[in-house]
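pasting for the record
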Amino acid sequence: MANLIVAFIRHGDYNQIKGAPSAHQAFNLNNEGEQQSLLQAKQFLQLANDENWQVDPIFDCSHLLRAWQTADIYKSVLQPVIGQSIVIESFTCLAERSVGTSMANLTVKQINQIVELDPRYDTLPNNWKSDSHYCLPFEGAESLMMSGKRVAQHVTSRIERFDNDEQVDKTVVKLFFGHGAAFRHAAHYLGAMEFNDIAKLSMYHAQPVMFEVDNKGNWLKGKGNWKIRNVNSEYKD
């Protein structure tokens, strides 16, 4: 396997429905999110040059607009320098946790009210949104752990092509653009984060968190900092 670094990049700040726990919102980056993405892309380029990294020209991102826009800004900064045509490929499996098709983009208050009015279901626990194992009782809903497993499986399958790469003179960096909670839970599945740290850490907008993947498939934390979260806050993509 080539010397490989995997970078998880959370999208920049975006316009969103206030109080809605669904991260499947179709809105665009706001001005701050665009500036975050541009700044972080330039800083990543400088780091890649300093470290003599080879950036893989295929960017993986979720189908959601804010992730694609973040990837596209990185592309605009990196492509003139790395000397290759960068392709952005979008994947449904890189999306954030789904709260279910019928609950998409409703507020927490509305979801709680719907459950309370439905005789088939018990009242939702107060921490249902941040409980890694809890899955809403609606079609298409996932737990945070389910979303993390989905992302981890995608990442693992996408880096398999590097197994037979004989190139050893440069370290290859593979970029994934997506969503904070799903990335953190994926990092746990990949052995790069302890479960108890998932709720303690978050991700800065548009800033890569990187992992070195060794020849045995071990994931080791590399460059890029996790964001320390308020342990009393809910997950917010």
